[in-house]
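User: Modeling request: complex.
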Amino acid sequence: MPAANSLDTQDINVREMEEYRPLLHRPLRKKIIDFERDGRLKHVILATQFTRPLLEELCDLADMVRELASDPEGRRKLSKLLSHLQAMMYFTQPSTRTFLSFSAVCRLLGIGTEQVRDSAVSSESSEGVKRESRFDSIRMFSSYFDLIIMRSSIPDLAECCAYLMNELENQEFNTRNIPIINAGSGADQHPTQALLDLYTIRRTFRFADEKRTPRPQFEVLSDAYPNLTADVSNKTFAFCGDLGRGRTVRSLVELLMKFDNVSMVFISPDHPKFQLSDDLISRLRDQGVSFEEVDSLDARLDGIPVLHQIDCLYMTRIQQEHNNQEDNDFFASADMTHYHLTPERVDQMRSYAPILHPFPRDSVAGEIPTAIDGNPRAMYFHQARNGLWARAALLVHIFNADRALTQAYREHYADLHDFNRAVL
Amino acid sequence: MPAANSLDTQDINVREMEEYRPLLHRPLRKKIIDFERDGRLKHVILATQFTRPLLEELCDLADMVRELASDPEGRRKLSKLLSHLQAMMYFTQPSTRTFLSFSAVCRLLGIGTEQVRDSAVSSESSEGVKRESRFDSIRMFSSYFDLIIMRSSIPDLAECCAYLMNELENQEFNTRNIPIINAGSGADQHPTQALLDLYTIRRTFRFADEKRTPRPQFEVLSDAYPNLTADVSNKTFAFCGDLGRGRTVRSLVELLMKFDNVSMVFISPDHPKFQLSDDLISRLRDQGVSFEEVDSLDARLDGIPVLHQIDCLYMTRIQQEHNNQEDNDFFASADMTHYHLTPERVDQMRSYAPILHPFPRDSVAGEIPTAIDGNPRAMYFHQARNGLWARAALLVHIFNADRALTQAYREHYADLHDFNRAVL
Amino acid sequence: MPAANSLDTQDINVREMEEYRPLLHRPLRKKIIDFERDGRLKHVILATQFTRPLLEELCDLADMVRELASDPEGRRKLSKLLSHLQAMMYFTQPSTRTFLSFSAVCRLLGIGTEQVRDSAVSSESSEGVKRESRFDSIRMFSSYFDLIIMRSSIPDLAECCAYLMNELENQEFNTRNIPIINAGSGADQHPTQALLDLYTIRRTFRFADEKRTPRPQFEVLSDAYPNLTADVSNKTFAFCGDLGRGRTVRSLVELLMKFDNVSMVFISPDHPKFQLSDDLISRLRDQGVSFEEVDSLDARLDGIPVLHQIDCLYMTRIQQEHNNQEDNDFFASADMTHYHLTPERVDQMRSYAPILHPFPRDSVAGEIPTAIDGNPRAMYFHQARNGLWARAALLVHIFNADRALTQAYREHYADLHDFNRAVL
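Assistant: Request completed. Predicted assembly structure:
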């Protein structure tokens, strides 16, 4: 066995993924079909799987989850929706936020969870010698669990796992196989983050906040901004920071493209690595989406400050952990304050324009100082919490529990109504 | 950004806590109000928050939890009390015992849990570069969870987190904020350990053990000890070992001070570092609590061995992990057997006097040899189990479920009664 | 205390286990009684505790669990069976597979779980100084939990923990004590793996697969193999690979010995370390079990290839992590392909003969290449899933819930029947 012994597990895993190369290189529209069953998502791999009608549907489900979650009895109803399921959270790339969000979502819906996060406790790598292949690990998870939520630094791994599951499904006797959810893969995809971002944008752009004004919010805003519409369409979205290396921007841009009359402004250092990648630029051009690229939050377009013109500002962190020496030199010479919010800059923005950030923010660089946290435009903490409702809606959809959710929602409000009537 | 980049996250976190300095330096009675809402604890930070009436109330709730937990049907009732909640266990200081206790308590009450224990898996520190501030992490937890149970080696961190939550509560639109429970903070506070210690003492001093004698235990004991009373008051408590560095002793002394006619004996090496700290000594003096300091378990007071006179002996471990070289030299020259129990020493104690220990005990030093474990005075394993009931009672109180617990308890015993009647 | 201080915790733990030496050295039949209560297993330590009637009973329970688990309503019924319990999973030896299996089983039955896997986060070893004894840790677990599932590289540790629990039970006032389940101990015992292996073998040898043929499977097979019987008895089992160092083979051989007219073939390198150990060989001789030892999958017995003659092939991985330099030299000179399956070798096997493997398999050495995974004889993924039902059955038995399971099963099928009738 000298030949085999000279191969290490890494090689095995590379060879395994190699088998799926032809599937990976297909056009998006062909892939998408592979991740659906009966007009419903089975695997969630790419942001572009979310069609606009599906986005509307998921946001409506998310609203129901959100309302039910607001009282103990509603929570009990939610916790029965998927209580027959168990999820494996396979997070080999460090992550607290996405991990905790999905974990909380599973508990909310009654889904039992287990985790494999650090391969050091796994026989996959223990003592470096058990040498189990990654796909054997995935098949093991599919023996014990009903769902894999995975995050990996290996590009395309989640997608390959979905193909592995499809292969099992197509074997002679329909071998056990389960849905794969991509919770962040390589540098390019983070579909559920895009979903929760979009859900937050959609909620904000309803302009139905009742707490802040006695008059309906949209009416008040329409006086000041006569062209405003109460939806995601017809808006200008700005993205600021490390646009080339952040997968959340890529995934959200994909979703916003699906809405009508949307414009975008990309604010980043003038360096190819930090600007939106060429493939996305091409897609925007192909879809006829109008966009601009500028190099400062203080930039002007047509003589008017960008900050006056935008309906939404999506901030990001500079991903310094991916810097090489050249990048460090670039940052040392660049004035990065062009990409940092300040209270003065926020004051220039439209009163209703939400500030989003996928978090964590960099407390040293300070792209959003805490002084802004109390500003009514700051939506980044709401955004995190909206992640619970949006991700819960997605699981409800995948496991065909949307009707059960709708029924639970109706019963709940019927109960409350009866209760209110009885009290009156 | 050279200035900002030269700061590291540690500096950010120190600066963040600095903002709460004025609040930290207030007198205790002013602080306590900040941790209450509507006559109920919201945050549990300091042992002194437990007033004597609250202690009685919590002990009564703990008794109900304990009895319900003793059979499967009662456990099912308990598991519904707080099943709409999710708790974050944020334990950045290593701990097995307190962690497992709280984790078991949450499951007992139906509370879902997630944990962040090792900051290595968190984006807070991953690759050393994401640089999220600690308070952003706490706010993230408050987005996903309904409660934070935290243990940290950083003094005052739990208290500062409570102030952060209060700030959010006071923002214009009542931003989401959740209770903070201090499960051990710095060197000075461990309030829930004190609560479970007190619960154990109170149960023992009812002298209502029915297993051991045919006659009521208190009657039997009164023959031998005519002045004995069946409560926490009127007792002498001895504390032995590393009294200066153990936060459990500090916290328990705080609670016992609230009872009437309580005396204390502190048995420790004659060295300022291992003796009760000056601030606590002052407080005992101010409250008129009588106490003595001696340097051996064999010491005599008024010519009578201390061990003959005490009603309760609280043993502790020497916290060698905090030794410096000077301490090591001190221990090498000192005769530490003065602070170790032996079967002969136990035999000198009153028959009813419980031996407590917060555990873990040091199996090498042997402050309590296993030979004593079978002695009826040894209460340290009961003490651990009582922690479940006392901590559960605390959560029930915080989340306003005391009425629901009482009702579950009554129903349970009504059911049992019906059942017994039906059988007869 | 210089003498005591020179001892480290390891010494303490060795001394603690030393106390149980006389119990460890008793004959098996004497030990087994210690692990039972009222004709029911309390502790599960050794494979030989499973008598043949008990194996039949557990397999029947496992079948019920399996069927109930196949639909959401059945799963809800299962999740109430043991929902009053909490389990500690104490896995100090790295393991993913067994850990995830037991964890999934606990959730399936509603048992809450907590884990201690890496002693680095425990006060047992934190900073190397708290120096809690292992048995104090075990007693702590027994304060908080209702069951300990443990895996350790220390030989006999699980057995000693069972003796500790028995000691507590025998103390004057029946001190709290809980069942111990051995999930892999030292090099010699893995009883629950053997149980799931046997359950898989028993299911396969019913020859009742309905998916694959229109005629009853056993009828079809009987045409080709007239002497075939539909049970575990009267079969020839082959074991291939690292037979000396794998505890799963040892444990399964123990169970198969209990069936009638069973033969075995052991296929391993001709080296004492990799061959079945002498003690097991003696036991096989004593029990009159016929067996052969050969050194290749291509070996012949009575002129006929072994692969033609066997009813079941149990493959194992070479445990390279336990190699010393001499072993490495041995492997470098040996032709290990004699112990690797190939599609050609599989084709020589009887059509019904299952291929088992305890997994993980070695993806570098390749004792089972993935090309075989689609072969109908490949049962190793089913085997993993069967582990859920077999281990669940074991917990149901230990906690006396077999009657509740049977009732849930009957109700479930009565409901389905009513449902079907109502629909028709």
